[in-house]
Structure formats: structure tokens, C-alpha cells
Amino acid sequence: MSENYDVVVIGGGPGGYVCAIRAAQLGLKVACVEKRGTLGGTCLNIGCIPSKALLHSSHLFEEATEHFDTHGIEVSKPKVNIEKMMARKDKVVDSNVKGIEFLFKKNKVTYVKGAGEITSPTSVKVALLDGGEETLNAKNIVIATGSEVTPLPGV
User: Fold this and answer.
1) Chain segment 96-116, per-residue pLDDT in tens
2) CA-CA distance, 56 to 49, in Å (whole number)?
């Protein structure tokens, strides 16, 4: 199957999804290809946001154990429930991902779950996560795949 777009964005992280949404807001027909199967990139899914959600829970635990009493708030000894902490973290991440998906729908951005490969200056072949394959034809291709740190020997 082959579809035609004004812009195909490869990468659904913060650079890619913002680019895709803005291009659509400017009236272009846009597709965004993301290999992870979830929008938001590293920061939203496994980096900044999950760590901040867990850090917030940790701060609340510390407040309850160390500082509530000074405010006249008496509680029994708090204890950490890792399963609930992780579930809350997952809910925070999921809520943010759903927000991006909503913006894609609102702005009519086509979300393609799979790994994109540029096969010509106007064509992106996508190995779909469900096992299929799709070709996206585009007047413009934006590469917004982020990066990975190169491992350094001995470090």
C-alpha cells in the first residue's frame, strides 16, 4: 500500500511530534512514523517524565516521614508500595502519550507505528510493527529520530 503526503516525519519524540503537529496546523498532509510504538520519545517514555514521577512520589514520602509532624499533621508510619508507585508512574506516562495522540487526531496527523527507511528523496518504506510493510510518498521528509550515545571503550 502507498500513501501520498506533503510531509513524512520519521521519529515521534519531542522534535518529531511537534514538527508533525505544526506542519498539519499549517495545512499540510502529514504522517509521523515511530518505531517504538508509542509517541513521546525517550524523555516521555523511559527518561525525564518517568523519573520525575518517581522522584515526586519519593519527595512526598520524605515529606510524610520527616516534615508532616512539624505542620501538625500526624500520620502513622508511611511505607513505600513499589507496585503502586510504578503504576502511578505508568499512568503519568500514559496520560502524556494519550495527549500527543489526541493532538495528532485533532490536527489530522497520520500516526504510523513502525520503523521508517528512506528509500528515495520522496519515499519512506515502513516496516510496520504488526509485521506488514507500507510505503509513504512525501514531498518532504523530516528526520527526527533522536540519537544514541556511542559506547566509549573503557568507560
Assistant:
1) 999 999 999 999 999 999 999
2) 10
DSSP conformation class of 38: S
User: Where is average pLDDT lowest: 29-43, 92-106, 140-154?
Assistant: 140-154
- Residue 10: φ, ψ to 5°: -100, 110
pLDDT digits (tens, 9 = 90+) for 49-92: 999 999 999 999 999 999 999 999 988 899 999 999 999 999 99
The closest alpha carbon to 33, from 48, 13, 53, belongs to 13
* Domain 4-143 in this protein, CATH class: alpha beta
Q: Which of 96, 125, 122, 89 is nearest to 13 (CA)?
A: 96
Which amino acid is located at 115 in the chain?
A: A
Strand 110-120 and strand 30-34: the pairing is: parallel
39-57 residues labelled b (16+ CB within 10 A) or e (exposed): bbbebbbeeebbeebbeeb
CB contact burial 135-153 (16+ within 10 A = b; e otherwise): ebebeebbebbeeeeeeee
Sign of CA dihedral 70, 71, 76, 78: negative
